[in-house]
Amino acid sequence: MESRERVPDHAVPYEGVWRFTAPAVDASVPQARHAVRDLLKRQGVPVQDDIMQGLLLIVSELVTNAVKHAALLSPELAVEVAVGAEWVRVCVEDDHPYRPTALVTDHGQTGGRGLLLVREITAEAGGACDVEHTAGGGKIIWVALPLRTGL
After folding, report:
1. 121-136: string of b/e by CB count within 10 Å (b at 16+)?
2. From CA 97, how far away is CA 103, in angstroms rounded?
3. 137 three-class SS
4. pLDDT tens digits, the chain, 151 residues: what are they?
5. Cα–Cα distance between 20 and 32 in angstroms, integer?
6. CA separation for the pair 49, 74 (Å, rounded)
7. Which of 89, 102, 54, 60 is nearest to 77 (CA)?
8. What is the model's pTM?
């Protein structure tokens, strides 16, 4: 994974924005998850353990969606991590124009529940998530979570 870093001058020690790019292949899912986990640990981000576990599951789900549904039109994806004083935001960007929606749960279906899971984890943590279009016609799916529950 290729990485770029931006850190504001007035930041607390762990604040900043980091961006990783990776090919849209299955192997990028665990690589992205580990890169996010290692980055947050290396920066000393005071993220509560249950928030970290939820965030890593969200990263896995979002990167998996990009690999499964966007790879044909987007051979590369990007993962951006932004950390503020009390929150962490993760974005997954690809060049595919399709804007996914969380579908109604079909308990007989074995797949297609990733975004529902992302929305449930986000809501339970008191965070926010959305999908936005990029200037180039692709999309960014982002999730912002508090570093600790109860914020």
Report:
1. bbeebebebeeeeeee
2. 18
3. coil
4. 555 655 455 557 899 999 999 999 999 999 999 999 999 999 999 999 999 999 999 999 999 999 999 988 899 999 999 999 999 999 999 999 887 765 444 455 555 678 889 999 999 999 999 999 999 999 999 999 999 986 5
5. 8
6. 33
7. 60
8. 0.85
